[in-house]
Structures are given as structure tokens and as C-alpha cells.
Amino acid sequence: MTDIELSAVTVEFPGRTALRDVSVHLHQRRIAVIGSNGSGKSTFARTLNGLVTPTTGEVRVHGIDPVRQSRQLRRRVGFVFSNPDIQIIMPTVAEDAAFSLRGRGLSRAEVRERVAAALDRVGLSEYADSPAHSLSGGQKQLLALCAVLIGEPSLVVADEPTAYLDAANGRRIARFLLDEMPQQLVLATHDLRLAARCDIAVRFEDGQVVDQGDPAPVIARYEHDQDQT
Ligand SMILES: Nc1ncnc2c1ncn2[C@@H]1O[C@H](COP(=O)(O)OP(=O)(O)OP(=O)(O)O)[C@@H](O)[C@H]1O
């Protein structure tokens, strides 16, 4: 598993401190990140792939600095957002799936083979030549995942990946991420049923890690605190 280490990480945005002096060391296969609105979950997730640069402190993902060594990092870490529409960049399903293989020196035949295998894995083979934007919301999220997985990352960071999906598609994406995908997962979510299926839950409040450990008790304490407010 990839080691994820934050040492005394503070992230300041104009007028707002999103993370305050966060130090965590995570290595579990499925890591849930929970906490109230604005607690810092997305900011934490974004430090892992260099989308957010710490104001102070250090982030290391498998020993790689996500900001200074972004090329190495992009090969190891894939990122999935809530909104599948903003993740689709190419006209057809197969072209979109192939996008992250650009610049890797693979032959056309190798790319075709990898795309076919990846689409098959997420059940989108029959849509290979369809316009990507004609897919349903759930299918688009599966395509976004497929485009990430085809680059063979060792870690997938997903920020509310089921937020825009109906119950059936949400379950499908959750099943894929939590049960079928072999990759390590960091899952920022408000869906506590998904968090409960992870190996560890890390709770943020007000930019700090306030609790972490076995998901069931961490979630129970979170729900208790929410009931008090
Ligand atoms: N680019 C930014 N510029 C300014 N402030 C930001 C930026 N990104 C996040 N913030 C602020 O930092 C704080 C933490 O935001 P973050 O998105 O990490 O929280 P979150 O736990 O993911 O919230 P939610 O559950 O609502 O998605 C919030 O107060 C947010 O308004």
C-alpha cells in the first residue's frame, strides 16, 4: 500500500484556513475521510495530488512530493471528482478512456487493447464509439473512473464520487470503488454507509483531524456530535 503522510500541513486561502497543522500517516487500503461541511476534507484530498499546495508543512505520497514531483505523482495517483461532466474531456467514450495514456510511448495497438480491457472492466464496452456526453450520470462516473484506472495508479482519491448519482448508480460506483477495484482508495464522503465499509475513517473538523480509527466508533462519535448541534 502507498504511504500517505502529512506533516504539520497548514493550507490557507484568502481569509480562510482550510487545514491547520495536520499531521497524519495513513497506509490502509480503503481510507474514508468524513466531517462536516467546510471541515477540510476536499482540501486534504487535493493536497494528495498537488491540486492544493500547503502553505506550510509537507505532504508525501509514497515518498513523492505531489507539488514538486507532479509527473511521478500523476502516474501513481488518480483523482475522481463528484461531477462526472467536468471529468470528460474527449468526444467518444474510447478516446476519453485513452486520454491518460498519451505521452506514454505505447503503440496504437497497445492503447486499443488497454482501452478495451478497461471499458470491459467497468461494463462500458458496448459504448466505446458513442459520444461520451450521451452516457447517463452513472455511466459517466464509471467512464471517469475507467480513464483514471487505465493509467494504472496505485492510489485513487475520490471526492464525493456518488454525490451527483441516483441511488442505483451510487451503489454501482460504491461497489466498484470499495469491493472490485484493487487499488488503494481515499474516499472523502458524507455518505456514512460508504465510510463504514472502509478500513479506517479519518474525521476532520474545522481544518483539523479530530478523530481516526476503526470506522464504526469514529462514525458513531461523529453522529453523536452532529445530533448535539
Ligand atoms: N479555493 C478556495 N478558496 C478559498 N477558500 C476555500 C477554497 N477551497 C476551500 N476553501 C475553504 O476552506 C474550507 C474547507 O473547505 P473544503 O472544501 O476542504 O471542506 P469540505 O470538508 O470538503 O466541505 P464540504 O463537505 O462542504 O464539501 C471551507 O471553509 C472552504 O470555504
UniProtKB/TrEMBL annotation:
Pfam families: ABC_tran (PF00005). The keyword Metal-binding does not apply. InterPro entries: AAA+_ATPase, ABC_transporter-like_ATP-bd, ABC_transporter-like_CS, ABC_transpr_CbiO/EcfA_su, ECF_ABC_transporter_ATP-bd, P-loop_NTPase. Residues 4-229 form the ABC transporter domain. The keyword Transport applies. It comes from the Bacteria. One of its GO terms (cellular component) is ATP-binding cassette (ABC) transporter complex. PROSITE patterns: ABC_TRANSPORTER_1, ABC_TRANSPORTER_2. GO terms for molecular function: ATP binding; ATP hydrolysis activity; ATPase-coupled transmembrane transporter activity. Keywords: ATP-binding, Nucleotide-binding, Transport. PANTHER family: ENERGY-COUPLING FACTOR TRANSPORTER ATP-BINDING PROTEIN ECFA1 (PTHR43553:SF24), HEAVY METAL TRANSPORTER (PTHR43553). Belongs to the ABC transporter superfamily. This is Biotin transport system ATP-binding protein. It comes from Asanoa ishikariensis. The lineage of its organism: Bacteria, Bacillati, Actinomycetota, Actinomycetes, Micromonosporales.
